[in-house]
Amino acid sequence: MFGAMREALQQELSGIRDAGLFKHERTIRTPQAANIRVAYPEDADPQDVLNFCANNYLGLSSHPAVIEAATNALQTHGYGMSSVRFICGTQDIHRQLERTIASFLGTDDAILYAACFDANGGVFEPLLNARDAIITDQLNHASIIDGVRLCKAKRYIFKHANMADLEQQLTQAQSARYRIIVTDGAFSMDGDIAKLDKICELAERFDALVMSDECHCTGFLGKTGRGAIEHCGVQGRVDIITGTLGKALGGASGGFTAGRQEIIDLLRQRSRPYLFSNTVAPPIVAASLKVLEILTKSTELRDKLESNTKRFREKMTAAGFDIRPGEHPIVPIMLYNAPLAQKIASDLYEKGIYVIGFFFPVVPKGEARIRVQLSAAHEFEHIDRAVQAFCEVGEQHGILHKSKDQIIAEHGE
Ligand SMILES: *Cc1c(COP(=O)(O)O)cnc(C)c1O
Predict the structure, then answer these.
(1) Phi-psi bin for 258: left (phi > 0), alpha (psi -120 to 50), beta?
(2) Which one of 8, 99, 239, 284 is most buried, by most CB atoms within 10 A?
(3) How far does residue 380's CA lie from ligand 1's centre (Å)?
(4) The whole model's pTM is what?
(5) Overall average pLDDT of the 111-130 stretch
């Protein structure tokens, strides 16, 4: 049978290659950090580069205290649990982590998943049915889109961050039994933060629940790192928060849903990725507890990330790059043209700066960009080296101090 399928798959793969959309993976030969050694292509000589494309926002991926906590747990709690939670997969530290996440975020309780992809995949179906309405931002993460698809509730999509459209969709959803507004807390392509204050106001006016996916928020947004909910001053008004342990909070893997007690209790009974998928490994659980302890004791890391972000954004703006304004450590440098974005990323790589170009279908056509991500693992010296490299490459390609229209006129869309 595979013979027939092979040909079709080969065709599809060459279609992806011909369109210039084939994704090649670079091999890192070091732990995740600001300074990494990368081989690309895989058999090429590895090169030392500064990493500006990890979700390692707080530099915790290779933090000595986090590694120590994971190592100790390996000895005290073992490597794996060989079970789902409800059979024999729950240790003291699993409940402890759930309670700690809840208290960190100011919610009643939390429930762990193998990944936030699973948290989002398993949150809607147990709570909502065909009588209900989900009102979801157009640019929400793929895992939210899939989670919504797995549930029978009616789906209303509102234009990205558009409160007038959200209001219109809420009006249309008034006859539903329950309504829930769902948004990413911060959006990964533009680094823009959801207007959770306005969303919560609308939710109160239209009697809706609110869910925020805080994967690109928890640990560093807001004055004490509680995320977009803190940044927007809506703690206590968001009913469901989903998040990941795989980005700022240590970067291994694992996810969670935090929120109202009855919601978490029902998810524990009915959420399919929780019931039918393995327990988060003990070393990850213990390391995550250590991460939350570090973040509860001090805001030093999120403060450092904030000043790194500010420095990079200010210097790049002054240098004449077209960057999406904002405060998030995701900094999109707009180039509009896909080959240009790719060329600039590879020129930067030659200069020891590892960044990635993003273009269609990851972002809309004509909105190609390089996405830079700052980290508390960066020192000012790293940031200045990156800006310097960007300036040299930007100068070469003649894109500094140019408007969008000028860049498009000179390089195409
Ligand atoms: C990364 C991400 C996820 C997936 O998280 P994992 O724990 O890696 O599965 C979900 N939602 C958003 C918004 C994300 O950025």
Answers:
(1) beta
(2) 284
(3) 28
(4) 0.96
(5) 98
